[in-house]
Design goal:
The chain is of the alpha/beta class. The chain is 49% helix and 14% strand. The protein folds into three domains: 2-53, no CATH class; 65-278, Alpha-Beta Complex (Spore Coat Polysaccharide Biosynthesis Protein SpsA, Chain A); 308-475, no CATH class. The model has no long low-confidence stretch (mean pLDDT 87).
Length: 476
């Protein structure tokens, strides 16, 4: 079995291969297992879960109503009567058995009519309203709600969110496997009337795209957010609930759940709509605020600081170009293509050595895709972590050649990654405004990160881990 993203060669048992063949004809796993002899159900599920974790198959569960677990929807709120009413209206339309649902609103010492607006929903929802005497913050409000919750599953959302009617129907069945401790879904704009909303639709840090994935601290989907987060209550209690930090309490909880060995899943079909900031200044300050949380998160989870993978081929090519410039021998620059050719030859050769020749076109596509992805993430690291320091240093040294190179690196990374994301994410937005929002996004993130470093007197978040990588075909 060959997978191209990334290039992998998977050698599977004959029975597992027959199972995959059956599933291509009929995606019902139970039916397929009845037709494949010599394959135990549990082993088959573990195999399919591994493929699902790698993004090679989509594994979805379904449950009849009588087997659905009880769910407690927990909504913290402070001084948001209008948005809360809209949120509860959306919750009232959830397609989930009422006898297995409770809604808990935790009011964080509001000073307006928010509590009374919440109480007005008692006759339309199985609702409890907890009123805090003093302000304790959103994270602790969620913990207080979890303490009194009766549901097996805790479903967290926010007062400025509108859950889709099938929100719980799409996500709750994933808990059929006891190893699954948390599940989250897509967070999309409540509407896309403004151009910033259309940018958020594809570039919000609350949104992880439309491909299902396993959540891993350094994976393609590294965290889930409290706007759309379901957690098994037992796992939540054992992990100690949310830490009293903000923002970042959701990321911290998810990482602790992962550290304890639980499976955390991202399933984009479970949709929640969120009222994003649609003006430039609130948009930028929110991005900066998110970035400050990275300082706290790195201190709490030092093993998960930002890392960037640099393929050996790219490093060798860059060194060839630098050597050509230092020695003023342009001919040396042509050596930059040699590492990539070596990559192609070795990848194709390893495929033949493992007994499964990989088509040359497949190898070329995979290598090109991997190189472009690595360049993108290197540029993304520069733009989000070092754009301001490089720009400042470049400005101070602008009379020298080094200054021009630093400015080119900073702004080249900002504009190149913005352009790449425009092509990759296909927003319903013109290129100029998308690039503007993207550059502002990165600069705000970098500013917030630097502010957090100053506040906590640490440079640890800026200590990016560099990993050299030699691409090859993996055997799984």
């Amino acid at each position: 079995m060959i997978a191209e993203r990334p290039l992998q060669l998977l050698r599977v048992h004959a029975a597992a291969a027959r199972l995959l063949g059956e599933l291509r004809a009929n995606p019902d796993v139970a039916e397929a297992l009845r037709r494949v002899a010599g394959l135990h159900r549990e082993a088959a599920i573990v195999f399919l879960e591994r493929l699902s974790d790698e993004g090679l198959v989509e594994l979805r569960w379904s449950l009849p109503d009588e087997l659905l677990p009880s769910v407690s929807v927990i909504v913290p709120v402070r001084n948001r009567p209008g948005p809360l009413a809209a949120c509860l209206e959306a919750v009232s339309r959830l397609d989930y058995p009422r006898e297995r649902l409770e809604v808990i609103v935790v009011d964080d010492a509001s000073t307006d009519e928010t509590p009374s607006r919440a109480e007005a929903w008692r006759d339309r929802l199985p609702l409890r309203v907890l009123r805090m005497a003093r302000r304790i913050g959103a994270a602790e409000c969620r913990n207080r709600g979890a303490l009194v919750a009766q549901g097996e599953i805790l479903a967290f959302t926010d007062s400025d969110c509108l859950p889709h009617p099938r929100w719980l129907r799409e996500l709750v069945p994933e808990f059929v496997r006891p190893g699954v401790v948390a599940v989250g879904g897509a967070v999309v704009p409540a509407d896309e009337s403004s151009w910033l909303d259309r940018y958020e639709a594809v570039a919000s840090p609350l949104m992880h795209g439309w491909e299902a994935a396993r959540v891993r601290p350094r994976g393609a989907v590294p965290y889930l957010v409290t706007a759309n987060l379901l957690v098994r209550r037992q796992a939540f209690v054992e992990a100690g609930g949310f830490a009293r930090i903000h923002p970042g309490e959701d990321v911290d909880l998810v990482w602790r759940l992962c550290e304890r060995g639980g499976r955390v899943l991202y399933r984009p079909n479970g949709i929640v709509r969120h009222d994003h900031r649609d003006r430039l200044w609130p948009f930028a300050t929110r991005r900066a605020s998110y970035a400050t949380s990275e300082v706290v998160l790195v201190q709490r989870h030092p093993a998960y600081r930002h890392a960037v993978v640099i393929p050996v081929a790219i490093l060798a090519s860059v060194l060839s170009v630098v050597a050509a410039r230092v020695r003023r021998r342009r001919a040396c620059a042509t050596l930059a293509v040699v590492p990539f050719v070596v990559d192609l030859v070795l990848a194709a050769g390893r495929g033949r050595a493992l007994g499964a020749p990989v088509p040359t076109a497949t190898v070329v596509r995979a290598e090109l895709r991997g190189t472009l992805a690595a360049l993108y993430w290197i540029g993304r690291t520069v733009s989000r972590y070092f754009a301001w320091p490089l720009s400042l240093a470049g400005t101070l040294l602008r009379s020298k050649g080094a200054g021009r190179w630093l400015l080119a690196l900073a702004w080249g990374s900002l504009l190149a990654t913005a352009s790449a994301d425009f092509v990759r994410k296909r927003p319903r937005l013109d290129p100029l405004r998308f690039v503007l929002a993207h550059v502002l996004d990165d600069l705000a993130n970098n500013a917030g990160l630097l502010a957090g470093c100053l506040r906590y007197r640490t440079l640890r978040p800026l200590q990016v881990e560099l990993r050299l990588y030699w691409p090859r075909i993996n055997r799984a």
